[in-house]
Amino acid sequence: MKMSRLYMPTLREVPADAEIPSHKLLLRAGMIRKLVSGVYSYLPLGFRVIEKIEKIVREEMDRAGSQEVLMSAIQPRELWEESGRWADFGPEMFRLKDRNEREFCLGPTHEEIFTDLIRNELKSYKQLPLNIYQIQTKYRDEKRPRFGVMRSREFIMKDAYSFDKDVNGMNESYMDMWRAYEKAFTRCNLNFRVVEGDSGAMGDGDSHEFTAMSSVGESEIAYCKDCDYAATDEKAKVIYSIDNKGENLEIEEVHTPGIKTIENLVEFFGIDASNFVKTLLVRISDEVIAVLIPGDRELNHTKLVNYFKVPEHELEMLDEEGVRNVTGAEVGFAGPIDLKQDIKILMDSRVKKMKNFIIGANKTDYHIKNVNIDDISAEEVEDLLLVKENDECPKCGSELLIERGIEVGNIFQLGTKYSDGLDATFLDENGKSTKFWMGSYGIGITRTMAAIIEQYHDDKGIIWPLSVAPYHVIITVVNAKKDDQMELGEKLYNQLMDKGIEVLIDDRKERAGVKFTDAELIGIPIRITVGRDAKESVVEFSVRGKEDKIKINSNEIFEKVQEAFNEQGLKL
After folding, report:
1. Which of 547, 500, 544 is nearest to 522 (CA)?
2. pLDDT (tens digit per residue) in 333-362
3. pTM exceeds 0.85 for this model
4. 375-378: long-range contacts at Cβ-Cβ below 8 A with a sequence spacing of 24 or more?
5. Which of 199, 179, 224 is nearest to 66 (CA)?
């Protein structure tokens, strides 16, 4: 492709609403443009990257025995009601009506649609197992779209669904997809971890997330340095020691004027935050509940909604008025003793082990100290906490570490959740009507593109791995007005393309500085510069992200390009 004809509207300034490197660089490199908040158009260079990622995913899915289809993005309400998810999915679902007032949604996921297809087509165990997938645009009405294509309202996703005759078959299909995902993300050159995840609204079985490690990731990953345990912060089991030695002391009310936060209470009492118990007031499905957790820990919202088996959008913290109604006090003084309303009280199991802790007195400007478990009445829940660094590994007991990451893929064991809901059955070996055992498997194509940039960039621009780069080689003709430079540049351009290499040639009549800046920004991996030595057929060869620049005869270019491919494990 000649850059004089390429639609590549690069920007010199960083757009004001761009927060993270991938968002900034995709916009600056002319690869995407925002239509409205959370909705983007993909321009030529960006779209080529998407096609490269899709090609890798297709090849690995096909190699694993999955078959590609394409389903509608518009889905009827009736199917979602059969599964029970029309109400549960919440405000993130785009809903619409046709001219006949029939209700639909723009698909955020496709479990119901694939199950409906299969229940009407597959009738015998002899047709199983089956794994089918699509690469389709998905829609979620994010409350706060941010980070460019990382969290958007419209995104491209590969989703696959497996159908098996029993749980063993489902487990085999699950591992087939696990291996396919590892191969796909490795080919994308991502540094990733496979971690235990929360199934959420998808299903009740095991799930794992494929997480690209990045400091700007939305997810926090807890992992063990001494074994293979790894889980999202939503899923990770919390284990840590509590010092509960000593005798119970006499309970005492303490005047704490204007002291509302744990930080201020720690300073006031001169003790560690672990000696306090926080009383959090929440509303779940219109029921007000008090949740007790240690003062130095955070509530895990996912564990709480899973305990009540409700969708996450049905959980909200009480506002100031709600707190006053329940406690009779201002925010910051809530406690489990003498609440003004008779509400359910839950406590994390660690609270039961604590001694002589401090709580709010349900009285403005007062707290109560030396409280013990016998002084309160609450329902114990094993684990309602977010994991913290240095907690114990549930598998081997070593210390856990925490890193941030970007979820680029997920796999779910659905069991019979959807075949039960949609009454999808087949006849087994004994002629008995049996429900399908299913799995669901997603890869965020556009999220993967952003994750690659987060791992491969510098202060000058993107550094694409060859496997996903929009072009393999960029030939920069320093002075397009010089015939000898243009002739050599075009000669190399044609020679490389004839060998199946994807090449950009910068033939624009621009200043050299502009060309070099654009080449760094768009991140084409292999760079050939044709300059003043063109008459001697000498060019400069370099690889984006490496400092080494060498001058070689143009006859040696193909050999150097082959070396660059070999270094990244690729063949021409």
Report:
1. 544
2. 999 999 999 999 999 999 999 999 999 999
3. yes
4. 375/251, 375/337, 376/292, 376/336, 376/337, 376/345, 376/347, 377/336, 377/345, 378/290, 378/292, 378/336, 378/345, 378/346, 378/347, 378/351
5. 179
pLDDT (0 to 100) of residue 572 = 81
Closest C-alpha to 368, from 335, 340, 329, 325? 335
How far are the Cα atoms of 20, 275, 456, 505, 536 from residue 47, in angstroms, in the given order? 20, 55, 18, 19, 38
Average the pLDDT over 71-87 and give the result: 95
Q: Phi first, then psi: what are they for 200, rounded to 5°? A: 55, -130
For residue 210, the cross-strand partners are: 194, 409
- Residue listed under structure tokens 């030595």: 533
Phi, psi of 254 (to 5 degrees): -125, 135
Structure token pair of residue 272: 């560690």
Cβ burial of 571 (10 Å; 0-12, 13-18, 19+) is: exposed
Question: What φ, ψ does residue 160 adopt, rounded to 5°?
Answer: -125, 155
Q: Going by C-beta distance under 8 Å and a sequence separation of 6 or more, which residues neighbour residue 44?
A: 6, 7, 8, 470
The letter for the amino acid at 560 is K
- Whether omega before 336 lies within 30 degrees of 0, making that bond cis, reads no
Q: How many helices (H) and strands (E) does the chain have?
A: 15, 31
Give per-residue pLDDT as tens, 408-457: 999 999 999 999 999 999 999 999 999 999 999 999 999 999 999 999 99
Neighbour order of strands in the sheet with 74-76: 74-76, 103-106, 94-97
Which tokens belong to 473?
């080689």
pLDDT reading at 201 higher than 60? no
DSSP string, 125-143: GGG--EEEEEEEEEE---S
Rounded to 5 degrees, what angle do the CA atoms 66, 67, 73 make? 115
For 191, counting Cβ atoms within 10 Å of its Cβ (0-12 exposed, 13-18 middle, 19+ buried), the class is middle
Percentages of the chain per state (helix, strand, coil), in multiples of 5? 30, 30, 40
Tokens of 508: 């624009």
> What is d(CA 290, CA 278) in angstroms, rounded to the nearest whole number?
10
Q: Is 379 exposed, middle or buried (0-12, 13-18, 19+ CB in 10 A)?
A: exposed
**Terminal CA-to-CA distance of the chain, rounded, Å?**
19
Do 488 and 530 meet the contact criterion of CB atoms below 8 Å apart?
yes
Cα–Cα distance measured from residue 248 to residue 233, given in angstroms and rounded to the nearest whole number: 34
Q: Angle, nearest 10°, between helix axes 21-28 and 445-455?
A: 100
Residue range 518-541, pLDDT digits in tens: 999 999 999 999 999 999 999 999
pLDDT value at residue 203: 58
